[in-house]
Amino acid sequence: MKNSELFDSARREFIVKGLGVAGGLVLASSTFFSACEFTEFKSPSEPGETNLVLDTTTEQYNVLAAPGGAVAVAGVVVIRLSPDRASALSRICTHQGCDLDPNDNGSIVGDRLRCGCHGSEFNTGNGDVLKGPAQVGLRSYPVEIRGNVLTVIME
Q1: Residue 26 shares a structural domain with residue 67
Q2: CA–CA separation, 154 vs 25, rounded Å?
Q3: I need a labelling partner for 102 at 20 to 30 A (CA). Which of 37, 80, 121, 147 fits?
Q4: Mean pLDDT, to the nearest integer, of 101-106?
Q5: Same-domain check for residues 109 and 141
Q6: What is the spatial distance between Cα 31 and Cα 63, in angstroms, rounded to a whole number?
Q7: pLDDT at 38 over 90
Q8: What is the pTM of this model?
């Protein structure tokens, strides 16, 4: 066998193996990222939207009666921070649009709302980025508390 034939054979083998590895990586990454689907919600601040009124005595929102409770509703995550303080943050991660629902893909640990897709973490009180890859914080909405009712001001 000539040197050029050996070279062609080795080159062909390298290309075939390289394509096999690359194909395997593409397949593995598509499986991994399929769990991180983009979620589209109607923006809670579009004209004509009303404030969100959440009664903590109802089954749907009773988790908000105590500090640490959180619920995703419309396009926001509402978090009860203390008996007299709550926050409402955009439900969509600013990194790649993943849903931050703490009862699904997102999670809350201490004062952090964590995105389950890529690990970005946001301050539960104001939406600031605490850990990337996200570079932009979450939009925050004022919350009024009157007795058992939390009202998210959709301004």
Answers
A1: no
A2: 43
A3: 147
A4: 85
A5: yes
A6: 34
A7: no
A8: 0.70
* Interval 46-53 mean pLDDT: 68
Sign of the C-alpha dihedral computed for residues 122, 89, 67 and 119 taken in this order: negative
In a domain? residue 133: yes
- Pair (127, 92) in one structural domain: yes
CB atoms within 10 A of CB 132: 11
How many Cβ atoms from other residues are within 10 Å of residue 107's Cβ?
Answer: 16
CATH number where 126 lies: 2.102.10.10
Question: DSSP letters along 21-79, please?
Answer: HHHHHHHHHHHHHTTS-B-----TTSTT---EEEETTSTTTGGGGSTT-EEEETTEEEE
Residue 73 lies in a domain: yes
Which pairing describes strands 143-146 and 107-109: parallel, antiparallel, or unpaired?
unpaired
Question: Which residue in 55, 67, 51, 53 sits closest to 147, CA to CA?
Answer: 55
Model confidence at 65, in pLDDT bands (50, 70, 90)?
very high
